[in-house]
Design goal:
The chain is an alpha+beta fold and 154 residues long. It has helices at 11-14, 76-129, and strands spanning 21-22, 44-48, 54-58, 146-148, 151-153.
């Protein structure tokens, strides 16, 4: 069902490392002498690649980056002041929201009290000014009333 795994040589034998061979000055024809100031042009280097090609070029020294200037560490006091400022602003925002909530709650309670007073006051006004008959009380004619022994007899 599955193909047999392919057998490979060990990894050490599979990799062939080719090192370039530098050309010795004896095998290269001497270049004509050209008057140059020392230090302005680097020395020419030639190497032979594994396939036989010859590469000639200047040896370039790697560019050294400028050293990074270390930043001074931030003091603990500055960090504490910054964190304190952030905390203070958070507390101020929380207090502002709390006062807004308390103000809104006070307005709601005031409106509920006013509503209750209007409803209750209206009910009292209806009771006082209604023209329904006084079925609960009795009308007494004062002129015919009799007082005996400081008691009223109607």
């Amino acid at each position: 069902m599955y193909p047999e795994p392919a057998r490979h040589a060990p990894a050490e034998r599979a990799v062939t490392i080719h090192q370039p061979t530098p050309i010795t000055p004896a095998t290269v024809a001497p270049a004509p002498l050209v008057p140059v100031q020392p230090g302005t042009i680097p020395a020419v280097a030639s190497i032979v690649l594994p396939d036989g090609r010859i590469v000639t070029g200047y040896a370039i020294s790697p560019v050294q980056p400028e050293p990074v200037v270390a930043k001074p560490p931030v003091s603990r006091g500055a960090v504490n002041i910054a964190l304190g400022g952030v905390g203070f602003l958070a507390v101020c925002g929380g207090l502002l929201m709390l006062t807004a909530f308390i103000t809104a709650l006070t307005a709601l309670i005031t409106q509920l009290i006013t509503l209750a007073a209007v409803i209750f006051g209206g009910w009292i006004a209806v009771q006082v000014f209604s023209t329904r008959g006084h079925s609960g009380g009795s009308t007494v004619n004062i002129r015919k009333a009799i007082f005996k022994r400081n008691h009223f007899h109607g």
